[in-house]
């Protein structure tokens, strides 16, 4: 098994290691960008250094990747507004066809020489504990790992990154909530290679904690905790979800049991069409519903936490109303879909409502009086039955506010749940509710997502 594992890893390593031509092209582009950036800085009334960061700076980038990260490091005497202004001025001078994006502060993203380039302003702080913006840590990360990852370990890191990408957990964006490049490099360094990393991960019992510099100055309630070697108060793995950790464990065991290159390649399913979606839910005998609206104009790292909050709010309300959510998901492209598969699409006209025990006099009398004058079975509805005794409690059977999930989702009550602010604003503008066979219409935009939903895997 060891020989088979090593043979698979070697094949992957050969594929993900940049060749001499690619390295030379990268070097030329980085040199050009540095010079252009220095020229742009020279036109400003302040001094600033140009720092290459990220995987290309640490020689842990994968063959075919086209990402270059350059930071312009300003003195801490520069104000925040000036930092942002100078950063954008430099960015547009270096990347004239670039566009502005926003993380903690704006920066310029563009292309140069066939590479994707991020040009980001930061502060030249004394150490990572003195940061004034989150990006100020990044140069310290590069410095720390550059001193510890040699060419052999860099090859192990590349294999680990390709494996994590293949199983769908590589990336610290809030859409993926997986393993960042920096976290991956720290873990491979911690274990001394790719194989010991996956062997250890296969045996993890979360929560799992590492403190490479033995200097933690805070505690964390996360499934994976890796104390930043440059900042004792930060968990590098804070964004990594419990599901991402579990997926790594599952596929680490799978790889060790049956080494094969396929695990290093993302397995995207073929998209399903309208009819396939309708037929699948018909076979399952469930009731799919979806709320669909135009995606808010915000970056993914702002959008996905709001989708998580909104989906949880809708699922909680559907469950409380008795529609029993089997599974739910949120997807976003041009439109957003909050999707729920229900065990029950329609409920009876009345619902049971239990009061307090009769022996609790004040509360019991208050409950009884509140319903005693309700009319049972009027001509236009089911009315209220009771109060009556069931054991030692008063009980009423009262009209249900929403008999169908669609009725609930189409009502103003949907805005009473905990929605993300931008999601609520988008839905307030316009949204549609799809149910039954009509959810098949989602396949046009979300055919791959629905294919994954209907054939779930670890």
UniProtKB/TrEMBL annotation:
Binding site for Mg(2+): 67, 69, 118
Positions that bind ATP: 55, 58, 141, 161, 170
Cofactor: Mg(2+)
Keyword Lyase attached: no
The EC number(s) this enzyme carries: 2.7.7.72
Domain of life assignment: Archaea
Ranges for domain CCA-adding enzyme C-terminal: 284-436
InterPro entries to which the protein is assigned, alphabetical: CAA_C, CCA-adding_arc, CCA_tRNA_nucleotrans_2, NT_2-5OAS_ClassI-CCAase, NT_sf, NuclTrfase_I-like_C, Polymerase_NTP_transf_dom, tRNA_NucTransf2
Keywords: ATP-binding, Magnesium, Metal-binding, Nucleotide-binding, Nucleotidyltransferase, RNA repair, RNA-binding, Transferase, tRNA processing
Other facts noted in the record for this chain: A single active site specifically recognizes both ATP and CTP and is responsible for their addition.
The name this protein goes by in its record: CCA-adding enzyme
């Amino acid at each position: 098994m060891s020989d088979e594992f090593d043979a698979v890893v070697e094949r992957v390593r050969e594929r993900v290691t940049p060749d001499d031509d690619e390295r030379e092209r990268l070097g030329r582009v980085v040199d050009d960008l540095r010079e252009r950036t220095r020229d742009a800085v020279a036109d400003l009334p302040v001094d600033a250094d140009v720092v290459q960061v990220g995987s290309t700076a640490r020689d842990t980038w994968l063959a075919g990747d086209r990402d270059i990260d350059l930071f312009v490091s300003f003195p801490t005497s520069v104000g925040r507004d000036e930092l942002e202004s100078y950063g954008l001025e430099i960015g547009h001078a270096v990347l004239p066809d670039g566009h502005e994006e926003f993380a903690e502060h704006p920066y310029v993203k563009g292309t140069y020489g066939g590479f994707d380039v991020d040009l980001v302003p930061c502060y030249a702080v004394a150490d990572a504990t003195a940061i004034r913006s989150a990006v100020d840590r990044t140069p310290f990360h590069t410095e720390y790992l550059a001193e510890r990852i040699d060419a052999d370990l860099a090859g192990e890191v590349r294999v680990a990154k390709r494996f994590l990408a293949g199983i769908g957990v590589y990336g610290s964006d809030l859409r993926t909530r997986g393993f960042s490049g920096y976290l991956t490099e720290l873990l491979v360094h911690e274990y001394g290679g790719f194989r010991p990393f996956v062997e250890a991960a296969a045996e993890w019992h979360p929560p799992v904690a590492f403190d490479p510099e033995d200097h933690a100055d805070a505690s964390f309630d996360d499934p994976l905790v890796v104390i930043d070697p440059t900042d004792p108060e930060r968990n590098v793995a804070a964004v990594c979800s419990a599901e991402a950790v579990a997926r790594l464990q599952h596929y680490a065991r799978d790889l060790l049991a049956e080494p094969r290159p396929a695990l290093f390649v993302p397995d995207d399913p073929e998209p399903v069409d309208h009819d396939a979606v309708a037929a699948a839910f018909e076979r399952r005998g469930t009731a799919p519903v979806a709320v669909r609206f135009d995606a808010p104009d915000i970056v993914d790292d702002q959008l996905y936490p709001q989708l998580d909050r909104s989906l949880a709010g809708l699922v909680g309300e559907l469950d409380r109303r008795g529609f029993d959510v089997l599974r739910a998901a949120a997807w976003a492209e041009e439109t957003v879909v909050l999707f729920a598969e229900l065990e029950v699409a329609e409920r009876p006209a009345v619902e049971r409502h239990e009061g307090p025990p009769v022996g609790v006099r004040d509360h019991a009398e208050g409950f009884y009086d509140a319903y005693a004058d309700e009319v049972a079975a009027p001509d236009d509805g089911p009315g209220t039955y009771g109060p009556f005794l069931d054991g030692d409690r008063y009980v009423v059977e009262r009209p249900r506010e929403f008999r169908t999930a669609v009725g609930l989702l189409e009502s103003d009550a949907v805005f009473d749940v905990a929605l993300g602010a931008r999601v609520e604003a988008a839905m307030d503008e316009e949204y549609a509710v799809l149910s039954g066979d009509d959810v098949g219409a989602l396949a046009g935009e979300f055919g791959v997502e629905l294919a994954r939903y209907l054939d779930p895997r670890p």
